[in-house]
Amino acid sequence: METAEGSSWKQRGTGILAFVIVLLLMPLGHALMVLLEMLGTAVFASALIVGFLGCVMLWWGVARPMRDLYATLLGAIGGVLTWTGWVEFSFVWLAHKLEVQPLMENGEVATKPEYLVMLSSIGLLGTMTLLFMFAHTRCPFFVWGQKRMGVHKAVAIPSASQRPLAMIAFIEMIMIVWTFYIVLLVCYDNDIAGDRHPITWIVAFGSLAWSVYLMGKLLRIRSFDHAVRYAIPTVVIFWNFVEVMGRWNLFKEIWVHPTEHWIENSLILATMVGFTAYYMYKGRKDRQRRVRPEIVDAGVPVRANPQGAPRTASVIQ
Question: Residue 161: how many CB atoms within 10 A of its CB?
Answer without folding.
Answer: 9
